[in-house]
Amino acid sequence: MDPRKKHRKLKTANPAEILRSHQRDDDFIKHLREKVVDALQLLAKQKGLLPLIHSNIPYKLIYFFFTSGMGNQTLGEEYTGIVQANLDAHKVPTLFARMLAVILECFGERVLLRLLKRLELSVNSPDSELTPAAAMFLNSFISKMYTTIPILILVHKGLFYMFGRYYSLGKRAAGVDYAKVYGRRPTDTISWGLRLLGIVTLVQCALKMWRNSNSENDTDKYLKADEKHSKLECRLCLERMSTTTTPCGHLFCWSCLTDWLNSKPQCPLCREHVVPSRIVHVMNL
């Protein structure tokens, strides 16, 4: 084999071809799902599997297992004449990289959001030993991540429209891109239509971030304006007036504090050990 051909640079697939490829794959997956749902509708109804068979994820995994997972082109890739490739290494991605890209595309965002939900539940659990400052910081961080993750995915999509590399974050993490191997190439440059779509997508992300920032500022202003009244409210239920104090000086309503101390003999705020018999009902509040 001619060494020059062996090290020949791969041609990057055009983003329009990548989009058409994924659209064709999605159409086939939708058609596959419809056929399987029709066949299994009766059985699934009896077995309680309806939510599973109506989801696209099982069919995506099956489809990509028999195509990318077995080293074959998908129908969309065959249609547009592109193949999955590691353009930096000038070679076909490993089986692990191809399957990792599929798994991240199917489950990546969902897994991240579930992990955030579990972290939120752990932080706000009565059994948590975090200080109030740490709990407040983590809750603020989790809240920001809930809004940041979808925006980050959208930003990456906008960058794909503009530069044509890595269709998704999952493919970027796995190092899987696309190369043009046969067929007529429409153009060597990215069309201005796609570039314009990328710019609009990034502007949309900037507006979402600005709106989220304004929402947080409005919340801070409201909390400061209401700070005088909130000092008199129970910090556990935020409804009844604080009438009971712990030996460390923190105020709560009687029912909330007694219920808390029955399950855990610690101050809900500073975690100092509190004997239930030592709490004091303040009569002049």
TrEMBL record:
In terms of InterPro entries, this protein maps to: PEX2/10, Pex_N, Znf_RING, Znf_RING/FYVE/PHD, Znf_RING_CS
Write down the SMART domains for this protein, in alphabetical order: RING (SM00184)
Task: Name the pathway it acts in.
Answer: Protein modification; protein ubiquitination
Keyword annotations: Membrane, Metal-binding, Peroxisome, Peroxisome biogenesis, Protein transport, Transferase, Transmembrane, Transmembrane helix, Transport, Ubl conjugation pathway, Zinc, Zinc-finger
CDD domains in alphabetical order: RING-HC_PEX10
Q: Does the keyword Transport apply?
A: yes
E.C. numbers: 2.3.2.27
Catalyzed reactions per annotation: S-ubiquitinyl-[E2 ubiquitin-conjugating enzyme]-L-cysteine + [acceptor protein]-L-lysine = [E2 ubiquitin-conjugating enzyme]-L-cysteine + N(6)-ubiquitinyl-[acceptor protein]-L-lysine
Query: Cross-referenced Pfam families, in alphabetical order?
Result: Pex2_Pex12 (PF04757), zf-RING_2 (PF13639)
Q: What class of enzyme is it?
A: transferase
- GO CC list: peroxisomal membrane
What is the membrane topology listed in the Swiss-Prot or TrEMBL record? Multi-pass membrane protein
GO BP: any one term: protein import into peroxisome matrix
Q: What is this protein called?
A: RING-type E3 ubiquitin transferase
Q: What does the sequence similarity comment in the record state about its family?
A: Belongs to the pex2/pex10/pex12 family.
What SUPFAM superfamilies is this protein classified in? RING/U-box
Residue span(s) of domain RING-type: 234-271
Annotated Gene Ontology MF terms?
ubiquitin protein ligase activity; zinc ion binding
Q: Where in the cell is it found?
A: Peroxisome membrane
Main subcellular location: membrane
